[in-house]
Amino acid sequence: MNPFAAGFSIFVSIISALTVIGLPVEVYQHGNGLIWRIAGGLFGTIFMSLSFVPLFHKLKVYSVYRLLPKVSILRIFFWLHTNPFDF
Question: Of 20, 25, 38, 72, which has the highest C-beta tally within 10 A?
Fold first, then answer.
């Protein structure tokens, strides 16, 4: 699959039209706290893409449900702890 199409599909699934339309109302009613949630979500997305996506690619699995029978959670934790940015 084309990487651009896959990335665009993920982007569209995360940010829907209702989110874009409702953002000004949320900021008006609840203040700038929503901006911090967006920043945290961006940080979490970057962290997950640098930590778990290479692990999934290395093990040749496409779902966490296929990963769990192959590797224990403790082993994943130790792999992430020892080399978090090993590609």
Answer: 38
